[in-house]
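[09:14] KT: can someone run the structure on this one? pasting the chain below
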Amino acid sequence: MAGSPAFPAGPATPVTAYVANSGSNTLTPIATATNTAGPPIPAGSVPENIAITPDGRTAYVANVLSGTVTPIATATNTAGPPIPVGTSPSPSRSRRTGGPPTFPPTPRIR
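[09:31] RB: done, structure tokens below
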């Protein structure tokens, strides 16, 4: 049938963006469908870099001054216990297949 889409549109999947707030040591979840900020999620000292696992279940935030990475359960926006990783963690540019991103103790890369 002319003018018909090749694939019918399905319902939109809710998406959350995460913003690191280094001044308040928190992350703010943003519901992108409504541009609404959720309650801040506690992180370590000076959160800067955020990486999300391929399955979308966990976000990892690198806390620069505390030398930790905080896991965030994306389904509930709750922080897990900080993971000690060393000085000035920054996400690695390489990723392990199917696993979480790595945060080696290297200087920040911008």
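[09:33] KT: thanks! The chain has a mean pLDDT of 76.
[09:34] RB: yep, looked fine to me
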